[in-house]
Amino acid sequence: xxxxxxxxxxxxxxxxxxxxxREKRKQSNRESARRSRLRKQAETEELATQVESLTxxxxxxxxxxxxxxxxxxxxxx
Length: 77
Prior knowledge:
Blueprint: H1 2-76
Keywords: DNA-binding, Nucleus, Transcription, Transcription regulation
Subcellular location: Nucleus
Protein name: BZIP domain-containing protein
């Protein structure tokens, strides 16, 4: 009866060990997903900042083109 008990005990600790590894893996995956979400959010914010900056630059350049076009027209008169 002793060896059977030892076998059951080993089987339970083996199941516990697998469960612990499974939980660690799940936690690791959660952390990885969290880091990925944070990275994506930072990238999105950076792109939004670039859009703002480029939109302002575009507006400024369009204004400059308008001024230069008027100036050119006056010089041609």
